[in-house]
Amino acid sequence: MRILVTGSSQGIGKAIAMLFLQKGHTVFGIDRQKPSIAHPEYIHCELDIRDYSNLPDISDIDILINNAGTQNEADIDINLKALIYITEKYGVREGIKSILNIGSASAHTGSEFPEYCASKGGVVAYTKNTALRVAAYGATCNSLDPGGVLTPLNECVINDKTLWEQIMNETPLKRWATPEEIAEWAYFLTVKNGFCTGQSIVVDGGESIKHNFIWK
Question: Of 24, 4, 18, 7, which Cα lies nearest the Cα of 183?
Fold first, then answer.
């Protein structure tokens, strides 16, 4: 199948792209950073997803995974508005099999920066709207909403011993997810799953049970 992953140069997006490549699929990546994957079935477009006029023409996408996102930097423009534009361009059409939006547990708890929470809350609502429309094509659309994940974006607290101890006290399983764990969920929700749709799947180690936001 042909898979489009945004934000594919690091973290969750890279792990998702690598898993699909390992499974024998063709992956198109869009990221404002240079490519970090060398694979014959990986095609990279170095581009900010807000640059709508220069988005590549990629036909016959089977699975769209909206992973690109930011924190405390034009959150609504990147995490929500650009996600909507990309979905309407590549995903809402005949032939699509599945759309997955990478959201956040913060959409459900409100425990983070205000604009970030608002942007991810919008993703939850837009996911339901999209699921209703792509159902006509027999396709699914869900959001996968992680809590803490061991990515470069989070290194400022991962590497702070005091804050990390506080965060672990708020996480019942006493650890954060790896990007590879989240990638496995993404694969299940888009390839294995054919009936669950319009849902927001929270994968956070129990973090949202307590949801006290701790940051630097």
Answer: 18
What is the Cα–Cα distance from 3 to 131, expressed in whole angstroms? 18
Domains of the chain with bracketed CATH: 2-210 (3.40.50.720)
* pTM exceeding the 0.90 threshold for the entire prediction: yes
> Assign residue 176 a region: left if phi > 0, alpha if psi is -120 to 50, beta otherwise?
beta
Whether the pLDDT of residue 177 is over 70: the answer is: yes
Enzyme catalytic residues:
116
Closest by Cα among 75, 148, 157, 76 to 109:
148
Report the DSSP beta bridge partners of residue 142: 100
pLDDT tens by residue, 201-216: 999 999 888 767 778 7
